[in-house]
Amino acid sequence: MSANSDSIVGQHVQILLVDEDLSARARTSIAIAGLGIHIDAAGTGEQAVRLLLDRAYSAVVISLGISGLDGETTVAMMRGIGFCGPIIGLAEGGIDADLARYALAGCTECIRMPLELHALAGILARQLRLEAVRTEDTFALEDMPEFQELRHTFERQLPVRLEDLQGMLERSQWEEALHVAHTIKGQAGTFSYQGISELANRIQLALIAGSGQDALVAAAELLQLDEIKNILEQEGRI
Amino acid sequence: MNKDSVEILIADDEPELRATLSSVLRSYGYSFVHYAANGADALQRIEKGAPEIHLAFLDISMPVMNGIEVAKKVQKVKPNCFCVIVSGYSDIENVKNALSAGAKGFVVKPFTTQKIIDVLTKFEQAVLD
Predict the structure, then answer these.
(1) What is the Cα–Cα distance from A187 to A170, expressed in whole angstroms?
(2) Which of its termini does chain A have fewer beta carbons within 10 Å around, N or C?
């Protein structure tokens, strides 16, 4: 790998590698890890789409020969949800017509197999440079003053909402509790309280599954979170 | 069309989510943002067309009518409206249903600004001059 590629790709670049063949995935990972980027791997199209929804990636490298949700459909779905970064397709013995189809589905570039790893690394480095230019003005939600105000409002209201939620669960008011848990889950996630969001989600899932007992257990765990204790302390509740 | 003339609807029953998304959109130069707290209200606003909504963020689990149902109906009456589904879950069936309903984007909460920018980029490539 050239030093030039290393310096251009730089820090905090995360890419998604999709291949159902474990050894091929390992080989490709080693080749592109030389660029200094972090790699998440998915073995199926479904898993890849879910990861792309949940996390931020600068690029996707996908073997188009995956089974189940096939490569072409997976790429189309990735574009369908709005992913705008580069998608590099690895085409198993692809003829020109196949490559045209993959491009139509949303591949930025395709490489024919057998894969020449240095060629992939070169394409990826070039595409990541373009992607860095496209996203250079991106800022974090946390940097916005309005966001901080909303976060404080959430923190101020949370103790009362937790009391409400606990009361609803104890009185078996499942539907009302589900609504409150759903709201807390979404807002806590938005305001980077991952632990609160995950436990509120557990309460929600337990209620959807009809298990009030599991919801109560998750609610008890929720109240023990450091995130909650810090907020209660900050709001003068403890 | 340019950014100054784009009318956006955010349909979500969580005021904080509406406010957060609205702030992001304004930061990227979109000034005309409208709100709806449930699916029926969202559909009515889009159908009415006063103003014409060009881009709609539709929460998947809103009261009265969910976001996917809204997107499906919008495709029939206002096919040029660019619908984006916002969901609390990265569930593949929901993604398939959203895309089948004609949605042009799918964002999972909690979202980052990058996810919103991606959707805006897609919208701008499809619609803006």
Answers:
(1) 23
(2) C
Question: Is the link from the previous residue into A86 a cis peptide, with omega within 30 of 0?
Answer: no
What mean pLDDT comes out for the span B11-18? 88
Strand-strand pairing, A59-63 and B32-36: unpaired
Question: For residues A155 and A228, what is the distance between their CA atoms, to the nearest angstrom?
Answer: 9
> In this predicted model, what pLDDT tens digit does every residue of A114-124 receive, in sequence order?
778 888 888 98
The tokens describing A14, both together, are 């995360």
- Would you call B2 an interface residue with chain A, using a CB distance cutoff of 8 Å? no
**Nearest to residue A216, comparing CAs of A201, A227, A206, A231?**
A206
CA distances (Å), A210 to each of A169, A204, B60, in order? 12, 10, 21
Interface test with B, best of A52, A54, A60, A81 (most B CBs within 10 A): A81
Q: How far apart are CA A61 and CA A17, in angstroms?
A: 5
- Look at B20 and A147 and tell me if their CB atoms are within 8 Å: yes
The model's pLDDT over B68-119, given as tens digits with 9 standing for 90+, comes to 999 999 999 999 999 999 998 888 999 999 999 999 999 998 888 889 999 9
- Model pLDDT for residues A6-35, shown as the tens digit of each residue: 444 555 788 999 999 999 888 888 878 777
CB of B100 less than 8 A from some CB of A: no
Percent with pLDDT over 90 in chain A:
51
Q: Alpha carbon of A66 to those of A47, A55, A89, B88, B104: distances in Å? A: 12, 21, 11, 28, 24
Smallest CA–CA separation between A147 and chain B, in Å? 6
Predicted-complex ipTM score: 0.89
Out of A56, A82, A134, whose CB is closest to B106? A82
Given the DSSP bridges, would you call strands B55-59 and B7-11 parallel, antiparallel or unpaired? parallel
Of A50, A139, A183, the CB nearest to B14: A183
Helix (H) or strand (E) holding A61: strand A59-63
* C-alpha count within 13 angstroms, C-beta hemisphere, residue B106: 31
CA atoms of B76 and A133, how far apart (whole Å): 38
Q: How many CB atoms lie within 10 A of CB B92?
A: 17
Residues of chain A with C-beta less than 8 angstroms from the C-beta of B109: 186, 189-190
